[in-house]
Design goal:
The chain is an alpha/beta fold and 301 residues long. Helix content is 44%, strand content 21%. It contains eleven helices and twelve strands. A hairpin with a 2-residue loop joins strand 1 (51-54) and strand 2 (57-60). The longest helix has 30 residues, at 62-91.
């Protein structure tokens, strides 16, 4: 036998099930002449007659019945294989995620949920500032990112994760010996830990400090907000820290707000993918991020 192909065998199976070339053509979204041509090709390859005309339909020959009895289980196996491959594509693979430190407050819970939902998916996670992550997303070095600040809607698709704000915090011991009139002294004698200069709210932070009489020579840029919070916790200065990250430490009295330094304006956070990314898996993970996010859904401060 030669020139056997799956399409011709599938066509023969549908003719046998439906009883006519015309019905098989409709099922397979093709023409009746195309179906006839496939059967001529298949019968030539097999060297047997599969069908005989019976009224307006067809009937299987003795050899045709034997062939279909063998072919149909094979076609079912191929269909199952195809379904398995499609299913595996949607729930397996390596997904590259970029995120800032702020999202680490709920990222573990999201990962636990995703592991239960899609156990065959693994992840590569990068922690960095928003600008760099968006650049890597645009270069297709990442599949999705979770970032704070503005997102270019011409380049990216985004879903809202909610809102956060930045607080000026320090260990309570730094304030024990001062009152609000002496705040300028504190701001000029302690280190100030702020986000990197590339951040979209670096200039706002400097303006807030200048308005309170702080010497900008004391401002240190730090790329990792967890590190900034640790600096503040250990008494190494005042940090500009995410309220979502510092909430537990503030509630426990381990960090306190610095009088006279107001919180930032609400900061929008988003989960973002490339504009033309149609991968179903990326969409499922973005939806999981929205569900897991613990940020407030609307600014209420």
């Amino acid at each position: 036998m030669k020139n056997l192909n799956v399409l011709n065998i599938e066509t023969a199976c549908w003719i046998a099930r439906l009883g006519s070339f015309t019905a098989a053509a409709e099922k397979l979204h093709t023409s009746q002449p195309a179906v006839s041509a496939r059967m001529r090709e298949l019968e030539t390859a097999l060297g047997i007659k599969l069908f005989i005309r019976q009224g307006r339909g067809v009937e299987l020959t003795v050899q045709g019945r034997d062939f279909i009895r063998t072919a149909e289980p094979l076609m079912l196996q191929l269909e199952h294989l195809s379904q398995s491959a499609r299913s595996a594509e949607s729930v397996s693979g390596v997904v590259r995620i970029g995120t800032g430190n702020i999202c680490m407050t709920w990222l573990p819970a999201m990962m636990i949920s995703l592991k239960a939902e899609m156990p065959r998916v693994t992840y590569e996670v990068e922690i960095d500032r928003a600008g760099k992550l968006l650049g890597r997303l645009e270069a297709r070095k990442l599949d999705l990112v979770m970032v704070s600040g503005p997102v270019d809607s011409h380049k990216f698709d985004a879903l809202s994760l909610g809102y956060d704000r930045m607080l000026w915090l320090c260990a309570p011991g730094l304030l024990d010996r001062l009152n609000t009139q002496e705040m300028a002294t504190l701001l000029n004698t302690t280190q100030l830990w702020c986000v990197q200069r590339e951040s979209f709210f670096w200039s706002d932070a400097l303006q807030a400090l200048s308005a309170r009489g702080a010497s900008l020579e004391n401002v240190n840029a730090i790329s990792n907000m967890s590190a900034a919070m640790q600096m503040a916790l250990d008494g190494a200065g005042i940090g500009l820290i995410s309220e979502a990250m510092a909430g537990d430490a503030v509630a426990a009295g381990r960090l306190v707000s610095v009088p006279g330094l107001e919180p930032s304006e609400p900061v929008a956070l988003s989960v973002v993918c490339a504009k033309d990314d149609s991968q179903a898996l990326v969409g499922r993970i973005m939806a999981a991020a929205v569900r897991a996010s613990s940020f407030v859904k609307a600014p209420h401060w």
